[in-house]
Structure formats: C-alpha cells, structure tokens
UniProtKB/TrEMBL annotation:
Keyword Hydrolase: yes
Keyword vocabulary terms for this entry: Hydrolase
Domain of life per record: Bacteria
Protein name: Alpha/beta hydrolase
GO MF: hydrolase activity, acting on ester bonds
Protein source organism: Inhella gelatinilytica
Record InterPro entries: AB_hydrolase_fold (IPR029058), PGAP1-ab_dom-like (IPR012908)
Pfam families: PGAP1 (PF07819)
Keyword Hydrolase part of the UniProt annotation: yes
Classification of source organism: Bacteria, Pseudomonadati, Pseudomonadota, Betaproteobacteria, Burkholderiales
Limits of the GPI inositol-deacylase PGAP1-like alpha/beta domain: 204-259
C-alpha cells in the first residue's frame, strides 16, 4: 500500500525552493559586484553591492524570506485529509534524487525531505524492535539479505524491468530480503557509521539468532558497506555476514565526478565567472566523495572487508571485454578498473580473487539491477 506523502513533503519543497531563490539572488548580486569593479584592478572579493543597488537586493531577499515563511505556515494549517496523498514510485524517485544531489543541505537545514536511514520490507520502513520484527516475520528464514542502493536511488528501485535481485535471491536461496533506504547525499563515512549502527540493531533483535547475513550492494552502496565494516571493526554483526557483493561499485572513484571538479577549478580561475562555480558545486558531499572512491587518507583500508566472502561484478559496454573500449566505458558510469578495484598503485588495489570477480558484457550501470545474467551469477556465488 503506498505511503502517504503528507504535508511535510510540501513544506520541505517550499523551503528548498525559497532557499534556492535566495541562493540565486546572492549569485546574481556577486556577479553584479564583480562587474562593477574598476577595469584594470583586481576583481573585488566582496560579493555584496552597496548604495541603492544593495538596497534593491536586500529588499528582494526580504520579500523572498517572507513569502517562503508564509507559505510554510499556510501548509501547516492544511487539514490532514487534504495534505496527505499516496506516495507513488515516481514521488519516491524524485525525493531520492533530491537527497542524492542536496542531501547534506537538506539534513543541515532540517528539511522534511531529508531521507532518514531505514530498513524496509515491501516498501515499508521496519521498526527494529524484537516484538515488531517477530510480528512482521512470524516465520523468519535462516538467512537475511540486505540490499543497499546507490546514489540518487531508493529501496524501491531494486525492482527494474520486471526483475528484483532481492526477490530472486530470496526465492533461490531461502533468504528474507530487506532493503536499505538512506540519504545518499551525506558523506560516505557518515552513512557507513549509520549503517553499522542499524545492522547492529537489526541483528540484535532479529527473530532467528543465528541467521546468515548476505549484503548485496549497487554503486555507491558498496562504498557505504565498506565504510560500515570499517566503522564497526570487530563488532558482532560483522562476523554474521557471510557474503558481500558489489555491483558496479566505484571503488577507485567515478570519472564523472572528477570531470565536474575540473570544471569548478576552471570557473574559479576567471574573475567574473567565479560566482558561477557555485552552480558546479551544487553537488552533495556524497557525490563529491565519489571523486576518488574511498582513498586511504580517510583511514579506510584499501582491501575489501575481512571476514565475508567479497564478490564484485562490473558492467562492460562496447566491444569484447578484453579490448580497450569497455575498459574506458565500463558500465557507462563506472570504469572497469574502478569496479574491479584494479589500481596502478598496489597500495590502493583491491585484491579480489580471480574467481570472485566477473564482468557482465553489454550491461550498463542501471541494468546491473535487472540483468538475468547477473542474477544467475549471484545465485552461483551465494548458493
């Protein structure tokens, strides 16, 4: 049954729109201040104008604040019957995308659109108490499958093109599928710490005390899982995990985020264009972390977590996987060496065993979620 959208989502959207308008006003004023500078002299560092011009900008900002606050107040008066509505997959996809791009900002400003970290079953968040889990799963299986989605996505998007790896593996291996939902715009290490705490709570109260635990991750989700193992080194729950699977995880970073960082630097170098660099930096901490994956300077070992069997799958578009083209293209978002952990520097290389890695020919980044060939490989590995 779809969850209600609630007035909180409307309030969050209004607040975000107001903040966006204010940011745009500040951007225009900063460019105005720089253009007003005397030719031949260095561009000013101050980004506020003075005199009558400054008064105009201050007035516009004041009106924007007033309209935004008034709209939020009116939304708070809406009857619940009017404010509530069904949460469709499209609605959840939009909220997930916003969290991916602006999630750190949403949380910092206490925006209702900020997605809390939750474990879900059939699209519904779970209460992680012994009584609630026993009521929800009266006949728990001997194994728990936890699926961790990637950037700008949510738990419902594991279902793609009529296929769901969670449902498929549950039927083939007798596991209970649980899906993580989280704010992908937060720093990777922060999400890793939260996931570690969530897993500890889940397994403390799970009805089957000796249940096998399997983690299947996609894209950024693999980095979150690695961060969780690092944060929970030696914790009891980590010893319960038998297998950890990475699908298209950018262990060594994503070329798209690296390219975006280069554009930022070019804009910053031009005096009048420098304020525009802010537009390029409208990327969350989570996206920025994808520039280099999980580098050693964050204190995370380059090797996969010790304990579980670690498996990795990379998508390869283009010609035969052995040629240069698929190595450069990878799955369209993550290059082959990054997904397989193959770095020129041995200190940053992830030593996946040869029989613990597999390349899916002709499969793109999102299609790793729906590929039947990938599903068969997962069953072969995890059975």
């Amino acid at each position: 049954m779809p969850q209600p959208a609630g007035s909180n989502d409307f309030t969050g959207a209004v607040r975000l729109a107001t903040q966006g308008s204010l940011a745009l006003i500040r951007l225009v004023e900063a460019m105005h201040a720089r253009i007003q500078s005397v030719p031949g002299l260095p561009a000013p560092t101050a980004e506020r104008t003075g005199g009558v011009t400054g008064l105009v900008y201050r007035t516009v900002r004041g009106v924007t604040h007033l309209v935004g606050g008034s709209t939020e107040a009116l939304l708070g008066l809406l009857p619940e019957a009017v404010a509530r509505g069904p949460r469709s997959p499209r609605h959840d996809a939009v909220v997930a995308a916003l969290n991916g791009v602006l999630g750190d900002h949403l949380e910092a400003t206490h925006n209702p659109l900020a997605q809390p970290m939750q474990l879900c079953s059939a699209g519904q968040p779970l209460t992680l108490s012994r009584a609630a889990l026993a009521a929800r799963f009266p006949e728990p299986s001997a194994g728990v499958l936890v699926l961790v989605h990637g950037l700008c996505m949510n738990d419902r998007q594991w279902h793609r093109k009529g296929h769901d790896h969670g449902e498929h593996l549950a039927a083939a291996l007798g596991l209970t599928p649980l899906y993580l939902r989280y704010n992908t715009g937060l720093p990777l290490m922060e999400n890793g710490q939260r996931f570690a705490r969530l897993m500890a709570t889940l397994l403390k109260h799970w009805p089957h005390r000796q249940a096998r635990v399997v983690l299947v991750t996609h894209s950024m989700g693999g980095l979150v899982a690695r961060s969780a193992f690092h944060a929970a080194a030696g914790a009891a729950w980590t010893r319960r995990v038998s297998d950890l699977v990475f699908l298209g995880t950018p262990h060594l970073g994503s070329p798209l985020e690296k390219a975006g960082h280069g554009v930022d630097q070019l804009l910053d170098a031009a005096p009048y264009a420098a304020p525009l660099a802010r537009l390029g930096r409208l990327r969350s901490a989570g996206i920025t972390d994808l520039r280099h994956g999980l580098p050693p300077e964050v204190g995370l070992p380059p090797t996969p977590p010790k304990g579980p069997e670690c498996w990795t799958i990379a998508g390869a578009l283009g010609a035969a996987p052995a040629t240069l083209q698929p190595r450069l293209l990878g799955d369209g978002l993550v290059r082959l060496p990054s997904a397989l952990g193959q770095h020129r520097d041995p200190a940053r290389r992830l030593p996946f065993a040869a029989d613990h890695q597999w390349v899916a020919p002709g499969v793109g980044h999102l299609d790793l979620l729906s590929s039947r060939a990938v599903a068969r490989q997962l069953v072969d590995w995890l059975a």
